[in-house]
Design brief:
Chain lengths: 121, 135
Amino acid sequence: MVANRRTILTGLAAALAAPAFAHHGWRWTDSGEFELTGIVTAARLGNPHGVLTIDADGEIWTAEVGQPWRNERAGLTDDMMAPGAELTVRGQRHADPEQLIVKAEVVVIAGQEYVLYPDRV
Amino acid sequence: MIETVEASDLAAFLRRSRWIYPLVNAGHILGIALLVGSVIPMDFAVLRGWQQPWLRLYAIVGFVIAVSCGALLFIAQASEYIVNGWFRLKIALICVALINAALHLTRIAPSRTTAALSLILWPAALISGRMIAYS
């Protein structure tokens, strides 16, 4: 009975935690390094999440960048990530290969590195 | 209308702030905790034939905190929330839960019925709200 209840609770927790589009932390990503280069087609910067849409040779990716304070600390401005900008995102991609989502640790623009997560690189 | 709200100085400030936005977020959670945390014991009390009216004040204060902070979170990206299915479901559930509460307070409906409905509606609204971040 107790085991049953625990199974149900664990299942429920897993169902609620299994994100279609996770944002916080790194548990949802593949732990390997990943790099994506393309043109920004849309940008939504600011709380709760900074999200860029990137066209990488016809593949449409979603790149999660930092909140404003993190982007600012890295030296990134909204203008640098505005639609039309060409940039490279280094970070971790979604653990599900079907999902074209990457969370940025570093953004590279014109050879200059902007480090969002200094502890991770 | 929605675009105007999202373009307001207050919305822009919330989007850019480092500490205020997460604090408002925490306030929203605190309000929900107070609201649902007092509604559920009240509902069970009614179902058992007891009364716990002193909890009502906490539920009302919780509701006011949750709505105030929720409104601030909403305006930061209003155009995205307004088209979100979970957000719409949540607002609909809250409206039904409020009507249910009014029926309870005015004794129009049997109190056990409204208590049972309340026990479903408020947690359902909470779950729908949480799902917005996963849609």
